C-alpha cells in the first residue's frame, strides 16, 4: 500500500458488501482495497495514500464511528475523506458521523449510483486538498531560503507597503530595499508582488486581515 494513486478503501465485516463495493469502484477504474475490520485497516494504511474511505459503522470491536473519531482526533495526520455507511433510518449515527468529521454518509442497502457519486466527490476533494498542501509545502521551502531581513521585507511587501515606506520603517536605504525585493522575487519564483501575496496568504503566514 504505497501508491499515491487515488484508491477507495473499504471497511466492512460483510464480505458480500466489500466485494460489491470493489466491483462497483473497479467498474469506473478506481483501485480498491478492502478490510474486514478497523484494526486491519489501521495496520496497513499510510497517511500519504490518496483516495477516500468507505466505512461501515457496525464493525466488530472498534466501530466505524469510533474509528472515525480516533483518526480525526489523533496525532497522526489523516486527510482521507470518510464516507460512513449507516443502517436505513439511522439518523443518530449519520449526525454523529458528520459531527466527527465524515465527508458524507450513505444508507444501506447501498444505492449504486449514489455511492459512485459520493465517492467521486470525495476523491476529487481529496485530490484538491493534497494539491493545496503540496503547493503550501513548496512555498514554505522557498520562504525558508530567505534571510531574516528578506523575510521582514517580504512581509511588508505582502502588506502592500511601498519600498520607500519599508525603507523608513526598517531604517534602511531605498536601494537596499530594492535589492532585497529583487532577491525575494527570485527566491520565491514570483513574477509579481500580486503573485507573491497570493503565495504567502496561501501558506497562512499572513492573513488578508493583517
From TrEMBL:
PROSITE patterns: HTH_LUXR_1 (PS00622), HTH_LUXR_2 (PS50043), RESPONSE_REGULATORY (PS50110). Gene3D superfamilies: 3.40.50.2300, Winged helix-like DNA-binding domain superfamily/Winged helix DNA-binding domain. One of its GO terms (molecular function) is DNA binding. Pfam families: GerE (PF00196), Response_reg (PF00072). The modification 4-aspartylphosphate is found at residue 56. Residues 7-123 form the Response regulatory domain. It comes from the Bacteria. Residues 139-204 form the HTH luxR-type domain. SUPFAM superfamilies: C-terminal effector domain of the bipartite response regulators, CheY-like. Keywords: DNA-binding, Phosphoprotein, Transcription, Transcription regulation, Two-component regulatory system. One of its GO terms (biological process) is regulation of DNA-templated transcription. PANTHER family: DNA-BINDING TRANSCRIPTIONAL ACTIVATOR DEVR_DOSR. This is Response regulator. It comes from Beggiatoa leptomitoformis.
